[in-house]
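Subject: sequence -> structure tokens, single chain

Hey, anyone have a minute? Need the predicted structure for the following. Not urgent.
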Amino acid sequence: MNQTQTEAVNQPSEPANTGVLNRIAFVGGLVLVVGAGGWYFMAPVAVESLRREAEEKLAAGGDVAPFASSLRGRGLVGEAKLLQARAALRQGDTQLALQLAESIAFSDPAHTSATCLIGESLLLMGQPLFAGERFQGVLKTEPDNERALLGLAAVWYDLGALVRALEPAEKAATLNPKDGRALHLLGSVHLQLGERAIGREKLELAVERALSPRQAREVIGQLLELDLADGRVAEAEGLAKRLEAFQPGTTREKGLQAWLMEARTENEAEKSQALDLLVALGRENPQDARLARWQGEMAMRLGRAIDAVGPLELTARLEPQSQEVRHLLARALDRSGQTEKAKGVRADLAVLEGRLKLLTELNAKVDANPLDAAPRLEMAKVCEALGKPDWAQQWRESVRGLGGPGGNQPK
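Reply:
Had a minute. Here:
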């Protein structure tokens, strides 16, 4: 999954930064603690005030250490650790966040907030399979846990099981209609499935709901890209102005501005200048598949198919599981007179479609018999073939503990 979709799970709905949901499951009511004067009941009002101040400081990106210390001093050690773990995840320290959350879960295996935070950390560390196990564990006891539902939806999105991502994301959106994160994830899934109208609708709803500034910025960027692709220049102009509120502009936002420059003019020299801007951005960011794709698509629109082949070939390497990119590449090769290479790309596309179909079938087999190692090992092979060695390694590691070195091998 890309970073954006991970943020759909890990960002708080209001306000936020990357890394973790803006919710801590604090213990309610009176808390029995040991103080200098012996046993006494701490007034819940004071504790709740402390919690609110901690939430505000965390949301503002401030130092929560004093609040964690105060919570610990009141005997709320688990809450203190959870607060520190959330802060660590916001700052990108996934290892520390994972360590703190695991220590909470070790002391209290039923602590679902800690378990969800473990899943979120693993998701950000690029381990969606192990993250999924955590979210599914929570949902067994709390089927309406919004945080776990969002996490599981993001796991399926990361693994390319887009249809499976829909159900938990839709349920999360229903449970909390004021929160835009699930709608953002749903919009992204529908776009990946080629359902542009539905995807646009979900994103338009999401941007009007509660989102972190960073995630609102991402959704506006997605809508701007859709408008540009659909030739809705006036609408794109309005969205571009909304993006100007977020400064400095990101590389991709600069790429969208170049696309808008091309879309708003009929002057060939200005269109060529817009393409030159994309080419320069691509050189500075050679691993950005989206920039490479935009460059290839713009070259095609300008009738320069030969200039489109290179960036589209790069996009295909960076996104080996993308069918749409291969369709674009085959078209560029045809138009530039490279028909034999185009035939090879279409042959590769047929193989890719078969592998993706097999991936869906194997996912179903894993669900039907989670203790059977065979489909997991087959999944690893398919992921390797799809150019996803990290996924493949996770599937191999997931076999451990299924009943021996090879798991529960079929008879």
